[in-house]
Amino acid sequence: MPAIPENFAKEDAFIEAHLAERVTDVALLLSRDKALDSAYILRQIEGRQRLVGKVPSWTAVKGLLFPPRLSLEQCSGEFTARYKATVVRNAVPGCGAMADLTGGFGVDFSFLSPLFGKAYYVERQSVLCAAARHNFPLLGLKNAEIIEADGLEFLKDLKEPLDFIFLDPARRDEAGAKTVLIEDCTPNVAQEQNTILSKASLALVKLSPMLDLTRALHTLSHVREVHVVSENRECKELLLLLDVAHTGEPRIVCADENGVFSFLHSEETAATPLYADAPETYLYEPNAAIMKAGAFKLAATCFALKKLHPNSHLYTSEQFVENFPGRAFRVLRQSGCGKRELKKLVAATSKANLTVRNFPETVANLRRRIGLREGGNEYWFATTNAKGEHLMICCERA
């Protein structure tokens, strides 16, 4: 990352005046003014635009430096960063010392470090360390010590004990291709777990939301808690809290903007839900975190709901149930999935939001086959009931 231009006041004024414009339009303007540092300006405008919805508290601070695009794409959003801070606040006693061994753009570090008296930001890339040195004072992070080094090498050389370590292993190989497995990430937490927990009794590891949870739990030991975090109906992060003193079953916490649902895997195994042959007055769809964590039976038993099928993961009730961790709908009508039945449904409402659950067609194929357009106020679920019959359930939001 180049240094701040000497005529920063002029650059800053230009950036503020054109923040809301398309980067391509700004680039055209800059091509006419060779006195301005165009690369610097374009990176700052694009960076602010990318982060305005992702980390709004950062973009409210003037003068921040933004790194190349990849680091912006990989950094956490504000919701998930604040959630990590809540997890750590509840798990770590006192306010001693922490280290973020994979500092990156520093979003997670900025929310975790205020919980501690001393905080190490460790990052191999000099461009990101330069941004951190500039940004952290503007963000009010007075206890941050920036270390340009490999995180594990720093950890092995560190003489003082830590209370907490955070890692967000890089999920790209040497060719830049995305990776998912813990063993394929850098650093390899599975290989280095003993080293990590010898320096701090607690560590939080951020993993790919695509990683199979069962495999993750077999790969890592001393997992005290699993946090599956979703936002806007999308699974965003898989967080594993490692505790060197923990040897039992981990608690699994499903979190989204509306709250949390926690359980043990043994509770899910033991749960025995009731089943309904047909949907009743209300239909429920679990959030992305519940689906990822696999709390399929508990989502029914904990809220006194009936499942439609063991593999459909849709639930129903006669009376409305509040606080269900997901979306709730009022059933308007239902039918089988024969050609004539579906044609009749589409004739009445040619536009709806379509979801398939345990159904032998994709959304795209089913839409095309029955001529259903996207949108509108109705939500249709193509699914299978406990008898193995295919159903189309038409609903509105409850």
Helix content class? 25-40%
Q: Unreliable stretches, pLDDT < 50, 5 or more residues?
A: 1-5
Report the total helices.
16
The biggest beta sheet, please? 9 strands, mixed
Mean pLDDT, nearest integer? Answer: 91
Q: Walk across the major sheet and give the strand order.
A: 3-2-1-4-5-7-6-8-9
Q: How far apart, in Å, are the first and last alpha carbons?
A: 50 Å
Globally, the shape reads: globular
Task: Summarize this entry quickly.
The protein is α/β, with parallel strands linked by helices. Helix content is 34%, strand content 25%. The protein has 16 helices and 17 strands.
Detailed description of the structure:
This protein is an alpha/beta fold and about 400 residues long. Helices cover about 35% and strands about 25% of the residues. The longest helix has 14 residues, at about 40-50. The radius of gyration is 25 Å and the shape is globular. Mean pLDDT is about 90; it is low at about 1-5.
Q: Which terms would index this structure?
A:
398 residues, alpha/beta, eight-stranded mixed beta sheet, 16 helices, 25% strand, globular
How does the SSE layout of this entry go?
Blueprint: H1 8-17, H2 23-30, H3 38-51, H4 56-59, H5 69-74, H6 78-91, E1 97-100, H7 107-112, E2 118-123, H8 126-138, E3 144-148, H9 151-157, E4 164-167, H10 189-199, E5 202-207, H11 213-219, E6 223-231, E7 234-243, E8 251-256, E9 259-264, H12 265-270, E10 274-275, E11 282-286, H13 288-293, H14 298-301, E12 306-307, E13 315-317, E14 326-336, H15 339-348, E15 353-356, H16 363-370, E16 378-384, E17 390-397
Parallel strand pairs: 1-2, 1-4, 2-3, 4-5, 6-8, 10-12, 15-16
Antiparallel strand pairs: 5-7, 6-7, 8-9, 11-13, 11-14, 12-13, 14-17, 16-17
Helix pairs in contact: 1-3, 2-3
